[in-house]
């Protein structure tokens, strides 16, 4: 399994859960090694894309950094009209949205490559999964105050990916998996994962949340709860056994 941008490793991370079940899991996270695991390096990106292209992985999970896509930025860094960064915000945040754009483009390239894999072992493409906060301009998670904000899913490269390859999605609150912080998350996966994504379709039973994933709470919310990592591992195993 290949996991990109997962945040610092720990004993209950997705990689740890997968390894505990006997799977090989390889991670790339700048915070773990700012030189050898820096996904902004062109040579490392090429290496990863080629490994996906060769069908070396049963599944690829991407959790792109959220910071430049946050609706909490003021002025708003991204809008639906200017999803790559607004003219107003760019003088203040120039390196910020640029890095996020690059992460989005790499994410889309990895997923598109995975979808095209055909080997004697892989007949319908390598499973890919992308996790990020949901679209707020439409659908079940519509929010009037954030309706003009452009998310990862509104980036042109991600829209092209969805048009080009079959995908499936599920949105849930991480509170349903034991997180004390309210954080809505969308997982987009290969189309063949659709029936199995029901594993993630849980309702949060908290009567209230004292903390939401904004501002100072954002770093804490980046660490997925153990139950969610276990559920993601269940999805990967079930899809790969199909």
Helical run tally: 7
Radius of gyration: 17 Å
Q: Termini separation (Å)? A: 16 Å
| Unreliable parts | 213-218
Name the average pLDDT: 90
Oligomer: single chain
The total beta strand count reads 8
Which structural class is indicated by helix and strand composition?
alpha/beta
Strand order of the largest sheet: 2-1-3-4-7-5
CATH class: Alpha Beta
CATH topology: Rossmann fold
Helix content: 25-40%
Strand content: 5-15%
Tell me which CATH architecture applies here.
Answer: 3-Layer(aba) Sandwich
What sort of overall outline do the alpha carbons produce when their principal axes are compared?
globular
Write a short abstract of this structure.
With 242 residues, this protein is α/β, with parallel strands linked by helices. Helices cover 30% and strands 14% of the residues. α2 packs parallel to α4 and α4 runs parallel beside α5.
Question: How would you describe this protein?
Answer:
With 242 residues, the chain is α/β, with parallel strands linked by helices. The chain has seven helices and eight strands; from the N terminus they run E-H-E-H-E-H-H-E-H-E-E-E-E-H-H. The chain has one domain: Rossmann fold. 30% of the residues lie in helices and 14% in strands. The strands form two sheets. The chain has a six-stranded mixed β-sheet, sandwiched between helices. Strands 6-8 form a two-stranded parallel sheet. Helix 2 runs parallel beside helix 4 and helix 4 runs parallel beside helix 5. About 2% of the residues have low confidence.
């Amino acid at each position: 399994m290949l996991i990109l941008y997962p945040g610092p490793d720990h004993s209950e991370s997705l990689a740890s859960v997968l390894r505990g079940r006997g799977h090989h899991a390889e991670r790339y996270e700048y915070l773990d090694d700012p030189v050898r695991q820096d996904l902004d390096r062109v040579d490392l990106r090429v290496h990863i894309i080629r490994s996906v292209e060769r069908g070396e992985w049963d599944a690829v999970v991407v959790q792109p950094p959220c910071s430049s896509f946050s609706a909490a930025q003021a002025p708003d860094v991204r809008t639906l009209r200017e999803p790559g960064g607004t003219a107003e915000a760019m003088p203040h945040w120039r390196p910020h949205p640029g890095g996020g754009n690059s992460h989005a483009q790499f994410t889309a390239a990895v997923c598109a490559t995975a979808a095209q894999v055909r080997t004697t072992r892989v007949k319908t493409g390598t499973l890919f999964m992308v996790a990020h906060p949901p679209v707020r301009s439409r659908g079940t998670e519509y929010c009037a105050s954030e309706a003009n904000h452009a998310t990862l899913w509104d980036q042109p490269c991600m829209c092209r990916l969805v048009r080009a390859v079959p995908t499936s999605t599920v949105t849930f609150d991480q509170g349903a998996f034991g997180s004390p912080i309210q954080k809505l998350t969308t997982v987009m996966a290969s189309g063949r994962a659709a029936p199995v994504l029901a594993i993630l379709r849980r309702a949060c039973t908290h009567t209230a949340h004292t903390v939401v994933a904004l501002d100072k709470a954002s770093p804490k919310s980046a660490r997925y709860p153990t139950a969610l990592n276990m559920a993601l591992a269940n999805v990967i195993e079930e899809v790969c056994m199909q």
